[in-house]
Design a protein that fits this description.
Low-confidence stretches: none
Structural class: alpha+beta
CATH topology of the largest domain: Immunoglobulin-like
Order of helices and strands: HEEEEEHEEH
Strand content: 25-35%
Largest sheet: 4 strands, antiparallel
CATH class of the largest domain: Mainly Beta
Mean pLDDT: 83
Helix content: 40-55%
Number of helices: 3
């Protein structure tokens, strides 16, 4: 009959091995802790929804460059990205490091809608001016 202490030591040894494997896996990831100045703001990392403010814990990511923001990917046009720099941040996360990112939330949806109207108006004006130019060219010739 084997001693119960031997079984206990064997179980503790295997638990130690399992815990060590989990810790070594977590060392290959970086973490992003996102904060903002408003409640219930949705957060996106690389276009993937990760939760709303406040997040319970930092988000694990692969080390490297990541895009963190509160603007949904379907609203991220090139001009929106250029004009709403506070809504999207490109950050570098190192392995085994926690990076804290603070985003200033200023009702981006209203800004995005206003910018889309502005871009639409610009394109309509451009087409109209081009049409007037063509009409003038045909009248002159």
């Amino acid at each position: 009959v084997k001693s119960p202490y031997a079984y206990t030591l064997l179980i503790l040894f295997w638990l130690n091995v399992l815990i060590a494997q989990v810790n070594s896996d977590m060392n290959s990831y970086g973490f992003i802790d996102i904060k903002t100045d408003s409640m219930d703001v949705p957060f996106f990392i690389d276009g993937i929804y990760v939760g709303s403010h406040p997040l319970k814990e930092p988000v694990a990511v692969i080390p490297g460059f990541h895009e963190v923001g509160y603007i949904p990917p379907e609203l991220q046009h090139r001009k929106v990205r250029e004009n709403l720099t506070d809504g999207l941040k490109r950050v570098y996360v190192a392995a085994s490091d926690t990076l804290e990112v603070f985003l200033f939330y200023d009702h981006y949806l209203a800004q995005v809608q206003a910018m889309e109207k502005e871009f639409k108006l610009q394109s309509i004006m451009g087409v109209s001016l081009f049409g007037v130019l063509l009409i003038l060219l045909f009248i002159i010739t």
